[in-house]
Specification:
four-stranded antiparallel sheet, 117 residues, mainly beta, seven-stranded mixed sheet
Amino acid sequence: QVQLVESGGGLVQPGGSLSLSCAVSGYIFSIGAMGWYRQAPGKQRELVAIITNGDTTTYADSVKGRATISRDNSKNTINLQMNSLKPEDTAVYYCIADRRYTTQRYWGQGTQVTVSS
């Protein structure tokens, strides 16, 4: 089993920055790609960014140029740095981890990010 715990959410003013972290524990050796999804009120959950074991990254168009995903395998964490935040970035952000060679995906409990003045 794998456990994911997010931190770093909160209230940010438009134009501000935020850093989210996700701590991974459990069967870490089984983990491949990791990333972040988000879900805004009344909307479907959507991909924000993904990072593979080889550090290949993919970003949603909506955050491209404003977000940076990184992973620290020595600390078993992934991070999401977001800049130039907009009210439409308001959502619950979820950390995900994919089990290698399977379709199994683990989810964190989510952390709220609110962008408002």
